[in-house]
Amino acid sequence: MSTTAIDTDTLPRTPWNGHADERELEHWASVARTVAQALAVDALARDAANQDPFSEVGLLRDSGLLNLLVPAESGGAGGHWESAFAAVRIIAAADGSIAQLLAYHYANQSSIAFYADPATQGDWFARSAAAGWLWGDSVNPVDPDLSLTAVDEGYRLNGLKRFSTGSSVGDVIVVNAAVSGGTNDGKVLAFVLERTREGLELLGDWDHLGQRLSASGSVRYHDVLVTSEDVLGEITPDPIVTLLTPGLQLAFGNFYLGIAEGALAAGRKILLERKNSWFLSAAGSYAQDPIFQRTIGELKARTAAVGALAEKLNRRFDTEVGRAGALDAAQRGDVAVAIAELKVVATEVALEVANRIYEVTGASSTGNDVGLDLFWRNVRTHSLHDPVDYKKIEVGQYFLHGTNAPLSLYT
Predict the structure, then answer these.
(1) Final residue of a domain: which of 183, 200, 234?
(2) Does residue 182 contact residue 228 with C-beta atoms inside 8 Å?
(3) What is the pLDDT of residue 3?
(4) Is 60 exceeded by the pLDDT of residue 1?
(5) Are residues 26 and 81 in the same domain?
(6) Where is the Acyl-CoA dehydrogenase C-terminal domain (predicted)?
(7) Is 121 exposed, middle or buried (0-12, 13-18, 19+ CB in 10 A)?
(8) 214 and 186 within one domain
(9) Do 391 and 274 share a domain, yes or no?
(10) φ, ψ of residue 158 in degrees (nearest 5)
(11) How confident is the model at residue 141 (pLDDT cuts 50, 70, 90)?
């Protein structure tokens, strides 16, 4: 279809356009570094305590990061996705759990732009910005569907959702469910509930190997009332609406990259502090030994390559989201595959770095008080979110046949 045939007045809108300039990028990188430094001080102790991260959310809120993507006219910072992804990467180097919270917050908060009518988006963003909401979610697609039944006063929600990231600390929770009955029968709606809504039960059952402070426990809904004011909008297969999923996958790639960079930085510090050298080595110290230099050099080079790809795609995402309703299925499919490529290499490199960093840090670095294992536990846990082998298949199908995977909340 030619551009002249598009009636832009009828297309869905998004509030983002253009790209971040150097001043914006450096500002948010500096903010993220400050937050990361604060989180790094006691990351291991907080991980061991496994408490809901309310104080960490307060740190994100006070820094302004929660409102980075909120349009300036709605009281936010008016920033770009490139800045948001970079902030996730920086914080992941210090605390993967809190980086996950922030990444999901950006995706969940941006549901306003992807699902809500343009006429209501400004009010939603303004309310979020004014109250400093952290947005959690309850949309895990592998769980049985929730029951959303039409009633006179709106809808009644029942059921259980596991892996609801940010739910136990989020000011609001985004929920997706298909309607039964009424005028919207069969439609899938996105709606927003405050964490304290009557009938919403937080089970607090998140106790996993890694990402322990991601507040990802299960939520049970007992006849929860959902009114029309809670509804963002219908989830449709429109390219711009479904672009939200590749955006979240891009956040994953950045967050895995950040974990790899954090493991490298921690390993470098330990290596430089090691005394003497292996008894068979002619080098004066472990850090001067070519064997250890080769290993850490290999890991650093591979991480740098993933970083370059992430930065390219972070900037490209602003281009694609800026197309809004003019984004077509081919454009959406192409960027989704490009992001899948990042997901593949970011996953594999982060796991490799977090594992092999021990080869240069030695047996003493396996002590529980060192905390080097936190990087591996975090990336190992979250990288199982959706099988990376299916991302490889997406890339291969597109490269060979030009076909995309069916639309879902994973593709």
Answers:
(1) 234
(2) no
(3) 36
(4) no
(5) yes
(6) 251-386
(7) buried
(8) yes
(9) yes
(10) -140, 150
(11) confident
Residue with tokens 């006070």: 62
Q: Which of 165, 266, 291, 286 is nearest to 217 (CA)?
A: 165
Q: Is residue 242 predicted with pLDDT exceeding 60?
A: yes
Q: Is the pLDDT of residue 11 over 90?
A: no
Task: Report the residue count for the chain.
Answer: 411
Q: Which residues have CB under 8 Å from 361's CB, separation 6+?
A: 267, 270, 271, 274, 372
Residue 104 lies in a domain: yes
The CATH number of residue 223's host domain is: 2.40.110.10
Which of 45, 115, 212 has the alpha carbon at shortest distance from 409?
A: 115
Say whether pLDDT at 184 is over 50.
yes
Q: How confident is the model at residue 12 (pLDDT cuts 50, 70, 90)?
A: low
Tell me the mean pLDDT in the region 228-253. 96
Among candidate residues 122, 115, 155, the one with its CA nearest the CA of residue 139: 115
Its domain, for residue 23, covers 9-135
Mutual orientation of helices 244-273 and 96-109 as an angle, nearest 10°? 160
Task: Classify residue 407: in a domain, yes or no.
Answer: no
Q: Is position 409 within any domain? A: no
By DSSP bridging, strand 147-151 and strand 154-161 are antiparallel
pLDDT of 9 above 60: no
Grouping H, G, I as helix, E, B as strand and the rest as coil, residue 179 is strand
Residue 44 falls within a domain, yes or no?
Answer: yes
CATH number for the domain spanning 70: value is: 1.10.540.10
Contacts of 261 (CB under 8 A, 6+ apart): 89, 92, 93, 303, 307
The reported pTM is 0.95
Report d(CA 409, CA 190) in Å as an integer.
13
Nearest to 96 by CA among 409, 407, 382: 382
What pLDDT, in 10s, does the model give residues 122-136?
Answer: 999 999 999 999 999
pLDDT digits (tens, 9 = 90+) for 308-363: 999 999 999 999 999 999 999 999 999 999 999 999 999 999 999 999 999 999 98
Compute the CA torsion angle 71, 190, 95, 49 (nearest 10 deg). Answer: 130
Number of domains the chain is built from: 3
Residue that finishes a domain, picked among 135, 170, 200: 135
Output the CA–CA distances (angstroms, integers) from residue 329 to 243, 249, 392, in the order listed: 10, 18, 20
Return the DSSP state at 177: E
Task: Kindly report, residue by residue over 58-94, the tens digit of the pLDDT.
Answer: 999 999 999 999 999 999 999 999 999 999 999 999 9
- 324 plus 307 within the same structural domain: yes
